[in-house]
Amino acid sequence: MIHLLSSKKKVGLPPGSVVFTGDRKVEKIHLHYLQYNEQEIEEQTVDSETITSFHQPVEDYIQWYDIRGLHDTAIIEEIGKVFKVHPLALEDIADTYQRPKLDEYEEGVFITLKAFTFDKIQRKVKLEQVAFYLGEGYLLTFQEDATDLFEAIRARLKNGRGRIRKRGADYLLYALIDTVIDQYYIALEEVEQVVEEIERDIIERQSRENRTKIYDLKQEMLLIRKTTIPLRELSSQLMDTENELIHENTEPYLRDLRDHIIQTLDLIETYRENLNSLQDLHLSELSFQMNTVMQVLAIVSTIFIPLTFLAGIYGMNFEHMPELQWKYSYFVLLGTMAVLLVAMIWIFKRKKWL
Amino acid sequence: MIHLLSSKKKVGLPPGSVVFTGDRKVEKIHLHYLQYNEQEIEEQTVDSETITSFHQPVEDYIQWYDIRGLHDTAIIEEIGKVFKVHPLALEDIADTYQRPKLDEYEEGVFITLKAFTFDKIQRKVKLEQVAFYLGEGYLLTFQEDATDLFEAIRARLKNGRGRIRKRGADYLLYALIDTVIDQYYIALEEVEQVVEEIERDIIERQSRENRTKIYDLKQEMLLIRKTTIPLRELSSQLMDTENELIHENTEPYLRDLRDHIIQTLDLIETYRENLNSLQDLHLSELSFQMNTVMQVLAIVSTIFIPLTFLAGIYGMNFEHMPELQWKYSYFVLLGTMAVLLVAMIWIFKRKKWL
Amino acid sequence: MIHLLSSKKKVGLPPGSVVFTGDRKVEKIHLHYLQYNEQEIEEQTVDSETITSFHQPVEDYIQWYDIRGLHDTAIIEEIGKVFKVHPLALEDIADTYQRPKLDEYEEGVFITLKAFTFDKIQRKVKLEQVAFYLGEGYLLTFQEDATDLFEAIRARLKNGRGRIRKRGADYLLYALIDTVIDQYYIALEEVEQVVEEIERDIIERQSRENRTKIYDLKQEMLLIRKTTIPLRELSSQLMDTENELIHENTEPYLRDLRDHIIQTLDLIETYRENLNSLQDLHLSELSFQMNTVMQVLAIVSTIFIPLTFLAGIYGMNFEHMPELQWKYSYFVLLGTMAVLLVAMIWIFKRKKWL
Amino acid sequence: MIHLLSSKKKVGLPPGSVVFTGDRKVEKIHLHYLQYNEQEIEEQTVDSETITSFHQPVEDYIQWYDIRGLHDTAIIEEIGKVFKVHPLALEDIADTYQRPKLDEYEEGVFITLKAFTFDKIQRKVKLEQVAFYLGEGYLLTFQEDATDLFEAIRARLKNGRGRIRKRGADYLLYALIDTVIDQYYIALEEVEQVVEEIERDIIERQSRENRTKIYDLKQEMLLIRKTTIPLRELSSQLMDTENELIHENTEPYLRDLRDHIIQTLDLIETYRENLNSLQDLHLSELSFQMNTVMQVLAIVSTIFIPLTFLAGIYGMNFEHMPELQWKYSYFVLLGTMAVLLVAMIWIFKRKKWL
Amino acid sequence: MIHLLSSKKKVGLPPGSVVFTGDRKVEKIHLHYLQYNEQEIEEQTVDSETITSFHQPVEDYIQWYDIRGLHDTAIIEEIGKVFKVHPLALEDIADTYQRPKLDEYEEGVFITLKAFTFDKIQRKVKLEQVAFYLGEGYLLTFQEDATDLFEAIRARLKNGRGRIRKRGADYLLYALIDTVIDQYYIALEEVEQVVEEIERDIIERQSRENRTKIYDLKQEMLLIRKTTIPLRELSSQLMDTENELIHENTEPYLRDLRDHIIQTLDLIETYRENLNSLQDLHLSELSFQMNTVMQVLAIVSTIFIPLTFLAGIYGMNFEHMPELQWKYSYFVLLGTMAVLLVAMIWIFKRKKWL
């Protein structure tokens, strides 16, 4: 069972109340700051104490504020005030059970989605809440965890080659989301592997675990699907927005992003159908096995129960049983039994039970 | 079986006939009156006798009339006349089997929906009819029950902090609906818990109750879904209306409300699929168990029925059975039986039945 | 099996051919005539002979022609000519297998639908064809049967209270359709009752009838659904039409009508899913029962077949069986058997078969 | 298995290649020619040799060219040239696996669909390719077979009554398509009859054929559905076209045609669901029967296996078995067995197995 | 299990990175060059070394560059630069796991899709990545493999007859895609054949392979469907584009292409439903067989177990068993047994088990 609801879910609180609904995964909130343009790049990491005094708009630079850790809602609210983030967006940043969505506010574009990672040791899909807030010339990102989801992008920015340093904050936003979506493939690849294992297993032999494995995978696919479906709408909104924060020349990349998401959904649907087929196979395998077992039982019983009855007849102790005294009656009986045996085997052969 | 139809359902009555179709849950109809603006707040509770003489529009104040109890349709009709509520809306207020909906009339906006509460003792989902009528500067609410669904909002209004005292009646409407929707999560959380229990139970052992528990939960999910689906359309209507009673700056909150409703629907769909998987698991568990039982039966029968036949042969009382007199025939037979036994166990091992 | 097709269905006839496809349910066609305005009301019943000579438009009056019986297609065609009803509409009036629909012609609006009644004695849903033709100031209704579906409306018209006498023929049309839809609830209520009975039955014991009962109900629900689904489109057409025969102030009532139809569809879908769950429950109940039966069989067989084999061994008549002469071998064997018995019971207990 | 693909399907041929993909059903292609107006009608039948020299536009007459037989693609291409039919349309005329569709070309409207006939002897649904090409004042029809699908229409034209002689070629097109659709009902009626037979059969007894009968019907329904679904779009295109070849006053008839098609689809969906219910019933019937069989087996085994064991005990040949010498031990044992028997029957009764 | 994901899938690479994700199927990349107009045609094949120096626009000629082999991404990128193909399109050319799609760029139209071939020896569907890039007067095609998918078109171009030499590069694009789609039918035909084999097999006898065969076919159908569904959108985009590279007179052919794709989808859906029915048939066949087996077992057991018990009774060695001494008791017992046997057979006959 995958938990879909937070027990910390706030009921009856006013809207815009920033409540952290996840599990605290990091000691202190950190801010990783990066400012760059085509020529220069500067990096800085500050602690949660000094985090809110940080905002200085710098001309001709793209600013990326990457906040890691969401549990200290006071700091989140402080940051919200500094960057004029709408209270409803702040609420969604801290709510780890929030459905992926895009909201446009007057001052910026807010996006929240889930990052997927496959825990190779536990062989489980793990979810992490990620939020983006795109403003004029800057981008805020919020990660639940201290481990960086955006390492590859950071490296690309630093090595300075390619398109990314020449483009605006909207391209950075695109690149970051694309990295998150790319991780979905890795999770799905692992799913594919497990499906393959089960498949091989079912055809070879029936173990109790196959059943629960299929069930667990179905649950996981439900979770992945639930998380991916809203992304389709999100990416369309991103493409169709007339917000000036999203520049026109980023559009082909956003179209590419949407294609990736649709491809992911395609894969998810295919795996889901696959799992259903697998379950059908599993059930028909069970039925077939049962049939085989029952046939063996029926054959053995049908052959030997009547024969045993015959033997029982002549094991009776009546004083007056004429056959008992006849000389060849034992051999005649054995012969009759042999004939019966052969006849029944022949019948079963004809009925294709043997 | 959850009852979806009232036996009191009026057939052939003229439209607009106000007939109470629920069970009377409160002795007398009460009116809880609240009038507030940013500076002041006043509260009053009056009895059903004086309820209809109450309407005095007060300038610069938001007026909230909260009527509890719907059984006395005469009073409901009286209130309807005072506030010029359309007869079809009045009919819907009293009809507890009414589907959630939003109707715009010239003088006001009418909304009816269901509140969900999870009865912790009976472990059952309970439904309550709630209706809203938003007019210029005032809001009417109708609850089936004396217990207040809106306690949290009332507290927020009184303590005076936050946005709610500064906004109009439309924001109050939003806040109240949001509170009702929030309760849905609590009901769903309980569903999640029961699902988890069943899951654990199925994997550990098969009891007759699992089956009926899954069935009952499916019924409950049907009911919750039936109640939630119309809310999606309702919230879209609320967002898209150009009615002047809904102010523009309430829109982000209505969008948030719609997001909540869509998230609830997502959860419901996920749980429904979950329950289906659970039932599949349950059935395949039953099949697997049956297989195991049948294999044990088949193994024991296949081994011992032929052996018993052999013993039966030599239990016969024929006078002329040469083997009976031979010295070691008993031990030879025992040896043959042992060989047969080992051979059959070996066969079963190879067929993976053991 | 519910018959969905008429064997009298005319193939190859020119369109507009008026052919009665039902079973004749009434001796002679009758016309019930009602003319009213806010002040006065007049009623008249004429026979099929004089029926066609009847049409005299009366100023300032609403005229309601209620024709009962459809088998005499000559009269239907005659009426059609008098009121200038389009031949395709006439064809649909007499075709009792016609799908519910609304057609707008230049001179009037034609509606055909099915009335549902639940036959309490046979416990079966019964269908009746009803057709409406709304013209300027008059309404034609066609019923298959002599029993009046519109009794309640007729009573309301005569007693003269309420809105109905003050409004036009379009309001009368609305009121009549609403009455027909109201009957659907009664049929569904009966369905609910039967579902409940089956539910109780399945949990208590398995009888052969449950299966066919579920099947019959599923068939009935198919029929009800097939009849109700076109009504959704019909009611939307009625609401959205710009035909002057439908006055603007009837619109809230038509919206209400559509809400009723959608609610009916909701109920139907819910019952259908319910029946599917019920069938799942029924099947898993059967599986569970089979499991129980098989376990009992396996336990008894597994315990006694090996013991019987042991007894068989010492029932053999070999001359040289040393154990037979030993003094306590009988008691040792009994003891061994007892130990085996206890051991096997212990194993079954541990495997939770007992 | 119904064949959905032609093995003659041409791959890699240029578009517009006219290849006959069906089985040759007629010796020679014939042309049945009919020219009529309100006053006069003339009929002629010519052979495939003279077929292409035939086209002479005749003023004030509607011309109907009915070509029977499609195997001689040279003639089809010749006709295509004479009437300026687009090569892609010609390709579709000869391709009997073509999906029903409507294509508008500059010079005419092309329609292809399938005619259904129920072969009463083989009890199988048969398909026939029909194509229509509507030009200014004339209509081309193509039938696969020499037997006339349009006999009824031809008769109506000749007898000269009714609307058909007064209207244009577009009305003729409508009348012909309507005739084809009418045949669908006859096929469906037969399906209904077979469903009914199976239903009766399942409830009475289980035969192997029911299973394959349901499977065959499902296949047939798939085929009928696959053929009917494109007709919905086709009829909408026909209604919405602004092509001048379709006159305005034919529209009510086209609307009627679309209604017929939708009703057919409704019926198909209903039968499909019906077949699914039937299969569920069949399976639960099998399960129930198995349960009954297993109960009988379990009861007999559970009662007699332990008793047989007891008898086996006292059939042993130990020298020291004190009970054997006791005077009443035989009767005591018989009594014990009787008590056990009664007890077990009582237990089974209580468990409702008996 | 069909692999849907590449393990070489690049994660975190910047967009537009050209990475080959398939298996290298060809030694060296080759370019097959064709330049033609209505009068002349010229052909040339060059090696991967000289491939990029090749582009010379030739007036009044259509140029077709057919590149075979995708593994050398450096060459692909080089070609991309020469023809100014957008980096995102280049990325998609090399990514063999790319979903079929159409992207319009300023300089050209990019299409990627999958070619299907049925490997007759392995009896498996094989996929191949194909990409098209349509520019002004030229067409680039990319094949994964050295074997030519477009042989038929090449032949048509060379023999010079028909429409193809008179039309532009857009018609060539249409003709090539149409050839690819035509191959789908061949794959589906093979599917149809396998379905038929399984069908025959199931009805005749149950083998373990049927189950896995159905499962494998389901997987294949999933793959084919996943590949075909995006083509519907692709063909609509192609029809609706206002890009000047697609000339107006190609439109009827594009409409035809879309019809082919929709027909393919129809077939796929039909086969999928067919496979589901087949699985249902398979399962009900298994159930029916099990029933038969169980009935045989139950009949034999029910008849002989009680009889064996009776024989066991008189095999007991009690000293005081009066019946043993009676003269005819043996014959009386045999008679009783015969009566019991006949009675039970009669009962089974009446219950229709025999």
Question: In a few lines, what is going on in this structure?
Answer:
Chain A has 354 residues and is α+β, with helices and mostly antiparallel strands. Chain A contains eight helices and seven strands; from the N terminus they run βββααββββαααααα. In chain A, helix 1 runs antiparallel to helix 2.
Salient structural properties:
354 residues; 7 strands; 53% helix; seven-stranded mixed sheet; 8 helices; alpha+beta; homopentamer
Please characterize this protein's 3D structure:
The structure is a homopentamer of 354-residue chains. The first copy, chain A, is an alpha+beta fold. Helices cover 53% and strands 15% of the residues of chain A. Chain A contains 8 helices and 7 strands. Chain A has helices at residues 73-83, 87-94, 151-159, 169-204, 208-240, 251-313, 322-325, 329-350, and strands at 30-36, 41-46, 62-68, 101-104, 109-119, 124-135, 138-143. Chain A has a 7-stranded mixed sheet, sandwiched between helices. The longest helix of chain A has 63 residues, at 251-313. Chains in contact: A-B, A-E, B-C, C-D, D-E. Chains A and B meet through helix 5, helix 6, helix 7 and helix 8 of A and helix 3, helix 4 and helix 6 of B.
Number of strands of chain A: 7
How large is the count of helical segments of chain A?
8
- Chain pair sharing the greatest interface: A-B, 64 and 66 residues
Low-confidence stretches of chain A: none
The fraction of residues assigned to DSSP E strands of chain A is: 5-15%
Query: Order of strands side by side in the largest beta sheet of chain A?
Result: 2-1-3-7-6-5-4
Distance between the termini of chain A: 44 Å
Secondary-structure element sequence of chain A? EEEHHEEEEHHHHHH
Name the shape of chain A in a single word: rod-shaped
**What is the averaged pLDDT score of chain A?**
85
